[in-house]
Amino acid sequence: MTPTPPDPRPGRPPRGQKGRPGPVRDADQTVPDVPDADGPEGVRLQKVLAAAGVASRRASEELIDRGRVEVNGRVVREQGLRVDPERDVIRVDGARIPPPRRHVYLVVNKPRGVVSTLSDPEGRPTLADLVERRRERLFHVGRLDTDTEGLIILTNDGEFAHRLAHPSYEIPKTYLAEVDGVVDPGALKRLRGGLVLDDGPVHPDKVTLTSTGAGKSLVEVTLHEGRNHIVRRMFDAVGHPVRRLSRIRIGPVRLGQLAQGASRELTSKELGELLDAVQL
User: Fold this and answer.
1) CB within 10 Å: which end of the chain, N or C, has fewer?
2) Catalytic residue among 84, 145, 180, 184
């Protein structure tokens, strides 16, 4: 059972009690600027939905009429209901609409050889070099080995970063490993059944052999833990050293076709699902 840490902002309700947001229409649409407050009583619900890119204001009213919108776990049919988009949890068809975006949430495709820090005394290339045009003070969620490439998240939302990296939330991460040799059914069975490494047992969520040939294999591994070099050590243990390793997914966030060294913002759908996953 996942523990729920105390809210770090005293006097303010948690940003995510059960029943909060996630967008419905354009899954790859990011959240626009915060809508202006309509007054001391909050913002009209249809205006919040329209500002989040769910639908036009008129179409949002129709969604409300049809009972497809929830606020804090309660189906809303009342037009003109005022809500606090920062605190109230809003869902359309069960998908969470994130609060207006006041922080930065970036997906970066880290190339091999880049250090998972934002500064390096040895002068090696870092994550900061990949987002040098951003003026915000960003920090990375977790890290990747210098020789590992792929998906890493940068943000300036400290509580989000802390929870996303914390093992208690068990956010699954998927890696694509190119390994020496042809991985046979016996090695796959060992990997899927779990291994005992020098720092304790590891039980992958999923192991899939995607291809073999020319003395190598491609294997996808999904884990919900992140001990140092854990994927490389797993394959060492079954006699198939890793040649190349890439992280291709964190929870609902996929690397997809993002070019190496490039970055993009989390979509509304991705952010909503991650906020739910870490109970914000």
Assistant:
1) N
2) 145
